[in-house]
Amino acid sequence: MSLIVQKFGGSSVADAEHVNNVAGIVTDTYKKGNNVIVVVSAQGDTTDDLIEKANEINPNASKREKDMLLAAGEQISISLLAMAIEKLGYPVISLLGWQAGFQTTSAHTDARIKRVITDRIKKELDKKNIIIVAGFQGLSRYDDITTLGRGGSDTSAVALAAATHADLCQIYTDVEGVYTADPRKVNNAKKLSEISYDEMLELATLGAQVLHNRSVEMAKKYNLELEVLSSLTCAPGTIVKEVTNVEKMLISGVAKDTDIARISVVGVPDIPGLAFKLFSKMAAKGVNVDIILQSIGRDGTKDISFTVAKNKLDDTLEALNQFMPAVKAQKVVHDERVAKISIVGAGMETHAGVASKMFEALFDAQINIQMISTSEIKVSVLIDLADADRAVSAIHSKFFDEV
Amino acid sequence: MSLIVQKFGGSSVADAEHVNNVAGIVTDTYKKGNNVIVVVSAQGDTTDDLIEKANEINPNASKREKDMLLAAGEQISISLLAMAIEKLGYPVISLLGWQAGFQTTSAHTDARIKRVITDRIKKELDKKNIIIVAGFQGLSRYDDITTLGRGGSDTSAVALAAATHADLCQIYTDVEGVYTADPRKVNNAKKLSEISYDEMLELATLGAQVLHNRSVEMAKKYNLELEVLSSLTCAPGTIVKEVTNVEKMLISGVAKDTDIARISVVGVPDIPGLAFKLFSKMAAKGVNVDIILQSIGRDGTKDISFTVAKNKLDDTLEALNQFMPAVKAQKVVHDERVAKISIVGAGMETHAGVASKMFEALFDAQINIQMISTSEIKVSVLIDLADADRAVSAIHSKFFDEV
Questions:
Q1: Residues of B in contact with A84 (CB under 8 A)
Q2: Which residues of chain A make contact with B90, given a CB cutoff of 8 A?
C-alpha cells in the first residue's frame, strides 16, 4: 500500500462537473488500495469574485484581512469535493490548512510553511479516510489565517507529501506534463517522461509555468518524487526526481520568458565597488537582478546592463535615479521589448558545444543576441521580443529534430 | 467605558453599501469610547449560493461537510466588514468562531455552544481593536467546524456578551424593535420600549420572529440586557430585560403562528394511561406537542386533539398510525388550515379578565375558537386560518385602542 498526495488546481475544480471528475480520479486511486491525501485550490472563479468584493469595499485592505477573505475559497472547494466523494460512497473528510497542521510564518499573503504537524492527518489515515486538504493556506503563530502566495497550493502538496513521507506527489494540471517547449507554440514539442529537480527548477524559473519553483525546491530538499499530469486525460505525465535514467538527451527543454525588461546604466566611472553598490541598492529594494553584462564604454567608463522582472521595472528605475548622482553615471536606459530564451539540460554538463549549437540555430534564423548568461545546466540569451517565438522554434528544431 | 456587543444579520451586510452602513454604526459606537465586539452572519445571498452548489453535487452530503461549506459564508462577511472599518481608519480584527473561542457540541448543523474561551477576545480588546466575530459557527471537541442552526448568530452574540460580561447586547435587524403586533399587518401596532425575558420568550416561540428563543433564554439565564433595533434607522429599539418598569400594560403583544397543524385522535377508549402512551410515543419521535384538548366522545370513548408544527405533521401521522391498533382508536384526522393567536403579557398574572377580554374581541368579530391554552403570561387560541389576520386586528384593537 502506498501513500499518494494528489494536488488539483482551481481550473480542475471549477464547477460541479469538474469536481465530480476529480472525485473520480481520487477514488480510482483509493480503490487500488492506496492511502490518498488530496490538496485543492479554490474554484476557478471564487478567488476573483472575492477579490472583487474586497476591492469594492476597500482596495487597500490589510493583508491579514485579505488572507481571512481568500482562505474561504479553499474552504468551499474542499467541502464540495468531499461531498462529491461521499456521493460515490467512499469515506472522506475535508480539512482546512490549520486543521491539517500547516504552521506558517506570519507574512500575510506570502507566508512560508514552517512545519506541518501531521497528528490529525495520521488519525484520519488510520480511519482509512480519503483526506481533502485546503491548499494555499495555513496558520501563523498568532493563530491567524495566512496564505502562501503564488504557487501556494503546489507548495502545500509537496510539504504535506514530505511531512507524511508519501511515496508520490501528483500535481494535476491542465497540461499533460513537462514538454521540451510550449506545445501551444512549437508543433513537435515532446512530453518528457522524466526530468531532474535541477532542470525543472531552471525551467520553472525561466517561465515554463508548469510547477512553481518553491514546490520543486522543496521536493528536491526532501527527495520527493513529483508527477505532473493532466486531470482531464490522466495519461502518464512527467516524473520529476533527483536523477533521471532515460537515455540522456542533450537538453530537456527550451523555455521563453517575456516577463522581463533590460536596463542599462551607461557611463559609470571605472572605479572598484560601484557595481557592488548598485546591486546591493537594488537588493535592498527587493529587486532580483538576472542576466548581468558589463562592458567597457568610451572615456574609461563602463556600461552595466541587467534584466529584471517587468513588474519590478518602476521600482528599479526609481532606485537607480536616486543613485545616479552618487556614481556619476551618464544615463539610464531601459527596454521592455525583450525576451529571454533558455535551454536547460543536465546533459550539457558533460557535453561540450551545447551553447554553440544554440547560437548556431539563432544565427541560421538571423536573430541577434543582446546578452548571454550561462549556468551548469542552462544557457540563456536575451533577444528582441519580436523574435521570441521564432527563436524557440529554431532552437527546438536544432536539438530535437536531429535526434 | 462600556463593552457593547452588536449583532448584524445577513440582510444588514448583504452588499458593499450595507457593509459600509454597518461599519458606520460600529465605528460610531467605538468613537463614543466604548469597546465593541461585532457578531455578523453570512451575507444575504451567500448561504443560498453555497447550498445550491452543494445540492448540485450531493443533496445528501454529510452534516459535517455542510458545516465546513456554510462556515465559509461568515468568513467572507467578517473580513469584508473589517476591511470597511479599516477604510474608516479604526483598528479592527476579524475572528472566526473558533478563533473567538466558541466551543460547541459536535451535533453538526445544529450544535449547541458549550463555552466561550475569551483569551483571544480579551487580548484584542486590550489592543483597543474593534472585534468582528463570525456568528453561527464554532468548533467541536474533535476540532471540526460546527454551525449552530436556526437563530445561531443571535445566540453567538448573546453567548459572547455573557462570556465577556458585556454591558449591552444589541441585535440589529430590519425592524425597529418588538411591536404589540406585526406592524406590516396591524396599522396601529406600537413599538414596545421594554419587554421582559419571559414575555419575549413567549413571543419568540409564538412566531414573532424578531429574536430566536435560544438567544432570549440565554440572555435571561445570564441576566444580560438585549436591545432589538434597526440597522437602517438606528432609532432606539426595544430593551429586553428581567423586569420592565414602564407603566404596566395589560399585555405586551398579539402574536400569530400559522406554522401549525391540528390533529385529532377520535374514539380512544377511556382507559387510564393511553394519553400518556400516545404523547410519550411522539416525544420519542422528537415531536413537540403544543395545545392539547381532551373531550368526551360518544360510547364512553374520548377524542384527543393537539397541535404540532407543520413540518412535523407527516412524522406525527406516521407515529400515530402505528399506534392506532394498540389504543383501539377509531380514526385520526388532521387540519392544516389553522392558526394560533396568542396574547402575551406579564400584566395578566395580576389582572383578572384578560382572557375573557380576548374572547370578547373574537366573539365581536364572529370568529370561532377551536381550542384554548393558557399559561401564566399567555393565552392562546386556535382558530381557522382564514380568520387569522382579522383576529389579530380585533384583539389588538380591543387591548390597545382603549388605552
A1: 57-58
A2: none
Buried b (16+ CB within 10 A) or exposed e, A327-361: bebeebebeeebbbbbbbbbbbeeeeebeebbeeb
Interface predicted TM-score (ipTM): 0.82
Distance from CA of B87 to the nearest CA of A (A): 6
Nearest to B224 by CA among B151, B170, B172: B170
Least confident of A132-146, B45-59, B96-110, B180-194: B180-194
**Amino acid (one-letter) located at B365:** A
Contact residues, chain B, for A76 at CB < 8 Å: 50, 53, 69, 72
Cell numbers representing residue A195 in the block: 526530468
Number of other CB atoms surrounding residue A245 within 10 Å: 7
Single-letter amino acid code for the residue at A253: G
Hunting for cell 469610547 — which residue is that? B33
* Residue carrying the nine cell digits 413540518: B311
Candidate from A58, A75, A83 with C-beta closest to B61: A83
Q: pLDDT per position in chain A (403 positions), as tens?
A: 799 999 999 989 999 999 999 999 999 999 999 999 999 999 988 989 999 999 999 999 999 999 999 999 999 999 999 999 999 999 999 999 999 999 999 999 999 999 999 999 999 999 999 999 999 999 999 999 999 987 899 999 999 999 999 999 999 988 888 888 888 888 888 888 999 998 888 887 766 667 888 899 999 999 999 999 998 887 899 999 987 655 566 788 899 989 999 998 888 887 777 777 778 777 777 778 888 887 776 677 888 889 998 988 888 888 888 777 777 788 889 999 999 999 998 777 667 788 888 999 999 999 999 988 888 888 999 999 999 999 999 999 998 886 4
Distance CA B347, CA A222 (A): 75
Closest CA to B380 of B350, B340, B336: B340
B359: number of Cβ within 10 Å: 15
* CB-closest option in B16, B64, B75 to A68: B75
Q: Cα-flanking dihedrals φ and ψ of residue A135, to 5°?
A: -75, 175
Fill in the DSSP letter of residue B32.
T
- Contacts of residue A294, defined as CB under 8 A and 6 or more positions apart, other chains included, come to A275, A302, A303, A304, A305
Long-range contacts, B54-60 (Cβ 8 Å, 24+): B54/A79, B54/A80, B54/A83, B56/A16, B57/A16, B57/A19, B57/A20, B57/A80, B57/A83, B57/A84, B57/A87, B58/A83, B58/A84, B58/A86, B58/A87, B60/A86, B60/A87
Cell of B201: 420568550
CA-based diameter of chain B, in Å?
79
Calpha distance B311→A191 (Å, rounded): 60
Q: Which domains does chain A have, with CATH numbers?
A: 3-173 (3.40.1160.10)
Check: CB of residue A72 under 8 Å from CB of residue B76: yes
Query: Can you tell me the distance from the alpha carbon of B56 to that of B357, in angstroms, rounded to the nearest whole number?
Result: 53
Nearest residue to A104 via CA among A134, A141, A159? A141
CB B122 within 8 A of CB B129: no
State the pTM of this model. 0.83
Q: Kindly write down the DSSP assignment for every residue of A51-87, as one continuous string.
A: HHHHHHH-TT--HHHHHHHHHHHHHHHHHHHHHHHHH
Q: Label each residue of A212-244 as H, E or C.
A: CHHHHHHHHHCCCCEEEEECCCCCCCEEEECCC
C-alpha–C-alpha distance, residues B279 and B320, integer Å: 10
Cβ neighbourhood burial of A280 (10 Å; 0-12, 13-18, 19+): exposed
Q: Does B120 touch chain A (CB under 8 A)?
A: yes
